[in-house]
Specification:
- By secondary structure, this protein is mainly beta.
- It is built from 2 helices and 12 strands.
- A 7-stranded antiparallel sheet has the order 8-5-10-3-2-1-11, with helices on one face.
- It is globular, with a radius of gyration of 15 Å.
Length: 162
């Protein structure tokens, strides 16, 4: 079965399956959503261009985790700054401002896990459907991101700290 269920049942999404959206300079494919996991977690596969850096922000209820498949990253969480590459796992707890930057010269591929869930819908609400492979850069509208983010317990604090 390839469609995501609305109740808890086993399912599988193959490579290139799942709702794909263009979020700013990142292509995101939703693999596990609030609906498919009964609200326990969400998992998004992401592809980002060099230089990608989300706005400095804080989640009030969601912990955010990254597993890096390809690429080089610089993370900042609170006052701590650290690097990560393929095979790295990064945990960013709720309540602490954070951001990251793709610092390599190649596309970065990574997984974003949030728990509890609901934040997957933020990406859908702030993006456009990815109608083809590759990246679909969109202009950054901080006011729109802040308004929608507030609905999901996220506050935009300013530009990336890099």
């Amino acid at each position: 079965m390839s469609a995501q269920p609305t109740s808890l049942h086993p399912y599988i999404l193959q490579a290139n399956e799942g709702e794909a959206v263009w979020y700013l300079t990142t292509r995101m494919t939703l693999k596990a959503t609030s609906a498919s996991t009964g609200g326990t977690l969400s998992l998004v596969e992401a592809l980002a261009a060099p230089g990608t850096a989300p706005l400095w922000h804080v989640h009030q209820r969601d912990d955010e985790m990254f597993y890096i498949l390809d690429g080089a990253f610089l993370f900042q969480c609170g006052d701590e700054r650290f690097e990560g590459g393929p095979g790295s796992f990064v945990f960013l707890p709720h309540g602490i401002p954070h951001s990251f930057k793709v610092v390599g010269q190649t596309l970065a591929k990574f997984l974003v896990l949030t728990t509890p869930t609901g934040f997957d819908q933020y990406f859908v609400d702030t993006s456009t459907p990815a109608l083809e492979e590759g990246l679909g850069p969109q202009p950054v509208d901080p006011e729109k991101l802040a308004a929608i983010g507030a609905q999901y317990g996220m506050e935009i604090l300013g530009p990336p700290p890099f």
